[in-house]
Structures
1.
Amino acid sequence: MVAGNFTRGRRVEYLARDHLREQGYCVVRTAGARSPVDLVAGKHREVLFVRTLRLRSPVADVREVATRFRGDIVRLQEVYRRVELPVQFWIFTDREGWRFFDVRPGGISEVRGVCV
């Protein structure tokens, strides 16, 4: 079961990587399950840190994401505080595709696509 979760997680990271590359970003996948981000993307002088997640069913709204994934968001807020560069949380479902959330020290907000 764990191997299946790992494979599904890696697949969504590759989907995100391909999405970023289509928009002209150079993308590096981070190593290790303990890293708070899965991808670091750069384009010109812009850098973006991305955490990806694949869910079976869609999330209702930003409030559900903030509550359900509180631990992930706290870790991403720490990344933002350290690097002071854009950090996003991307959620993928087969029914909806991608939903994107900006992570800031004060909370999260849903955005359309990659915002740097």
2.
Amino acid sequence: MRRIVAVEYVTLDGVFENPAWSGPYFNEELSGWQDANLREADALLLGRKTYEGFKAAWPQMEEQTGHFGVKMNSMPKHVATTTLTEPEWNASFLPGEVADAVKGLEGNLLINGSGSLVNYLTRHNLIDEYRIMIFPVVEGEGARLWEAGTRIALKLTDSWKTATGVEVVTYVPA
């Protein structure tokens, strides 16, 4: 059985790229929550850009991030790409049509970032749960989580707020 969970950082105005704005609000509550998200995952499901960014950063972060970094570096990664040819960092590239390849995967799959992949999988009704951290910041510009034309009705299943004002919401397709 396959279950796909997308975990995203967004600003109040929906920007999700380069979340340096999250730093002042990231605390032990969010760290523990992110740790739990990773622990329940069997593998990561990533778009090319996020994969390349993670692959460049995480191998050097293991010492400072402990078991979280060890899990990030050692777990399998399934990557949606048409341009990369040499998988590294415990990765495999999804063959053929991405939706069909994802349907063939098993286990609990975690998506972090990967906005284009999230939008694509949303349009194909393949994401089972959206866990979104909404930071009390307005960026005014930048890539939005939801691309034009992406439509989905969602049902709120959980909501809580950190001491730093980050609203953490969980939605499932309605």
3.
Amino acid sequence: MISHIADGLGPDGVSLFISGTEGARDIDALHEHGITTVINCAVNLDINYADTLTHAAESGKRGAGSAPVRTYKVGLIDGGGNSADMMLGAYFILEGSLDQTLPERSSYPTRKRGNVLVHCRGGRSRSVALVALFLHRQKPELFPTLSDAISHVRVTRELHPDEWFETPKQSLIDAAERAASVLNLIDESRRS
């Protein structure tokens, strides 16, 4: 299931979605939702989107090419074990994906800008923490605290209230809070 989370983000005012693996690998569903960018938050979860091969597979090497969506990968662990800066890095990848404009060159065939999907295996912890951090930072008038943003994402993602104690896991909430603190310090240094 692909869940619509928020609208009006980034310079193009795109919509943000969350899913687990099944939603992220459904190209037809991505197109139906106008999703042109996919951000994978999970370590050791690789989805082969390449539909145009530019490098054929050969002995000891995999094929490579381009995909119908722009893809970014973070590699967060679902729980403890992430370095202190992993969530901050994930935030910058999500923010950067919205701001990035690809050049008109054949090596960048998937240039169309559209909606963004953030996913992990189940779309319940890593994705929720990252998207909540992003909403808190990008729309503070709607989500003045990280907790407000997490509550919104839990509801729009249709996570069962019995699971809210672990969706997202506390270690990922802690990571998002640390990232928010660092981002606040960056904002303060830019203002001074």
4.
Amino acid sequence: MKNLVLAFVLLSAISIQAQDTSEFKTETIEFIQLTGATKAFDEAINQIGAMVSEENKEAYTKEAKATLTGLYAKMSELYMAEFTRDEIQELVKFYKTDLGKKLAGKQLSLAQKGMMMGQSWGMEVQGIAQKYN
């Protein structure tokens, strides 16, 4: 009887933890979507799909977008390893504010421009390094 009670308590604890993890994952996926990441992935799907014929475009888009569920699940694990549930909840609140929405709307463009600046800077530093060879 003692073992049965212990097993029940253990199973209950595992079930509660799994539910907490599931809710944490759902909140983390919501955060990822609120950041504007969906726009970047939609653009990537469209760019890659540019080579798909018009007659197959709809099927391609449907299948490609279906892969996002798995991607978001993997990304959520990455964020869950770096942020607590409370932090993710705070980030979700922020991205639901006007400022958070503004940041999400501009994040892709800012990242692209930042990468171009970084590449230019890298070339500049490479020129300096060559001067000292």
